[in-house]
Amino acid sequence: MSTYRRLNKTLLWVLVIAFSILIAGGLLIFKNEAPRPTKIVSQNGTTLVTKQQLISGQAVYEKYGLTDYGSYLGNGTYFGPDYTAQALHVYIQGMYQYYGNKQYGKSFKALTAEQQAGIKGKVKEEIRQNRYDAKTDQLTLTTAQTAGLNHLTSYYRHQLRNNPRQAGMPENMIRNNTDDFMQRGDKIDQLTFFFFWGAWLSSTNRPGQTYSYTNNWPYDLEAGNVMTSDAMVWTALSVALLVAGVGVVIYFYKRYHFDMEYTLDYDKIGAIKTDEPITPSQRKAAKYFLIVMGMFFIQVLLGELLAHYYVENGFFGIPLQNIWPFNLAKTWHLQLVIFWVATAWLATGIYITPRVLGREPKRQGFLVDTLFYALLIVVAGSMLGEWGSTLGIINSKWWLFGHYGWEYAEMGKFWQILFILGMVLWVIILCRGFLPAIKIKKNLDRSRLLQLLLSGSIAIPAFYLASLFILPNSHVTFADYWRWWIVHLWVEGIFESFAVILIGYLLVDMKLTTIKSTIRALYFQLILLLGTGVVGMGHHYFWEGDHSIWLALGSCFSALEVIPLCLLVWEAYTHYKVYRDSQLDFPYKGTFMFLVSTGLWNALGAGALGFLINAPAINFFEHGTQWTSAHAHASMAGVYGFFSIAIMLFAMRHLTKPEFWTAKVEKWVKWACWLFNIGLAGMVFITLMPMGFLQLKDALDFGYWHARQMSFYKEPIIQGLTIARSVPDIIFTAGVVIIGIIFLRAMFHLKPASKKINPVDYDIQ
């Protein structure tokens, strides 16, 4: 137990240090964020844009879910343009045209190469100069910059009004309603002002610096946006730190024996039983899994619809974009994966609670039913709200009940609060079983394992509270700082930690590992995961107007994130070896297949592909391309998706009668696992990685704005790769259908409920 105390103290210190760095870096972000001037004025003092119009344009961007169509400062979806890069390019073209007419009386294209070079140099120098006056809180534009803004306004009026050529988008989607957080006036013009502000802050030098507020992102030679020396230096140092970190981690791993020890004395264990009785609340948890598979299936179909939009504006000639535009389908696609993964984990926690206590807490079933119907309301209500907001049906209070406008945080604020309350209710359900079980002093190792699992459970709703700090009028840098607490820290950090703890608990529950070695291994893995992952989320802060310190912190710590993820592959292999060498009638073969798959995709999708795109020297050119999409799919589906299926199979194995799990059913589970892996591998490596490579090459050759234009996806080779994706998509979908049918049939073979069960016996460990 003294070893546990040392490990516990180490983990706490790691958390204190990591979060201190994260919060200190956040304070620097807020102190150094790009100004949102009270007014943007011309040289003669005429007001061009007000701060209220900037905020109104941001609200338009949020209300219509444009973050799930294109992106802003590189954050969002990869189908539409990056509006920052596109606006910067068009704004510069407008300045070229102004100087061509002023100096030569000709259009810029009609000038000689020498004349064009002179104008380009003049414009580059002009836009780099920062003319923001902090005393008056005003930004002054030169006459040429004003012409560039006017040119940009005309461009977006043409692009977004009376133009049905936006693939997957309804014509005239943006309306002139003056809704919450909006000002009177033309909404497309106000949206343009918001885009222009992003172009300005990304191409204007910070006061006293030779790089822009975004560390010169996006890459655009005409704007003078080239990679800074810091980005290259810290990329090199991060690789060196990774090599050194591997050596240090391996030393501690072997020196202190942090691997799990496997229980091989099968005679002492006896046969692994799955025929024990279940309680009413455990039986009620089964219906959660059926809803999970329904959401999973819909999410996959939406993903296939999104892929179809890459090929044509519609669905086999049907104007489906008028009902489900691309941005709405993408919103649901992202939100459903969070919903079904979270629901799978909630249901597994509900199943485990009486199992650790050995009895049913009073009125536990009522709370389980209440949570179930509350989740249904949140899922259905938030999705309908997003649909209404995107199509202009919900206008007033859109930010409460409609689309909130930030990727992975699309739910309106009302639904976010209900979702948090639902997770709090889940923690209460767990505490009613875990706390009495922890107080039992019969086995202190057992209490420590339950403490870790309960702590990981409490962290899930606790860290989602970051979503409450974002408001529709928040500065984009402020909003994205907290948004990444949800996307990276909540999804990739807390979910990852909870998954590691739950895997350890399941291995002990399945009587495969000794409890003491499992707890030590969990501490070691958590120290590595959270020690690197908390600060490692800073690789998302390189280019969005944050302090340049994140080039150092984000690159180094995100490189170290690869180490614990790759160590999990070794754990996955040893799990497989125990399963393979076991002479027992092992009832968890399906669970183990998906757990092994989780470990492999953790190293490949989250580790290798994450490392590929996170280094600043690569990310500067790659940010927001299909390589990012490849990393996201391999991580979300391969890690959280496969792990969710594994734990659901474990729970359903106990909730159903043993005779249901025939050799035929086990064979279909095996086939489904192979279909999942083959389909995901094809999706990532046949389509997304080659597309990302070509897109990165396009960005290097022509500038980032060019690689994000719709014309890129109309290239014959890109169209071919997109069409080829239909094959792995169908294979993956077949796996979903098979698992869904298995869970549906299992619902007709549930065990009857009993009020008392035997707690899991840990003494043999």
UniProtKB/TrEMBL annotation:
PROSITE patterns associated with the record: COX1 (PS50855)
Tell me where the transmembrane regions lie. Answer: 12-30, 231-253, 288-311, 331-352, 372-394, 414-437, 449-470, 482-508, 520-543, 549-570, 591-613, 633-651, 671-694, 730-748
* Protein's organism: Levilactobacillus angrenensis
Name of the protein in its database record: Nitric-oxide reductase large subunit
Task: Kindly give the InterPro entries that the UniProt entry links to this protein.
Answer: Cyt_c_oxase-like_su1_dom, Cyt_c_oxase-like_su1_sf, Cyt_C_Oxase_1, NorB_cytochrome_c-like
- Keywords attached to this entry: Electron transport, Membrane, Respiratory chain, Transmembrane, Transmembrane helix, Transport
Where is each Cytochrome oxidase subunit I profile domain found? 326-765
Q: Which Pfam families match?
A: COX1, NorB_cytochrome_c-like
Query: Mind telling me which PANTHER family this protein's record contains?
Result: CYTOCHROME B SUBUNIT OF NITRIC OXIDE REDUCTASE (PTHR10422:SF38), CYTOCHROME C OXIDASE SUBUNIT 1 (PTHR10422)
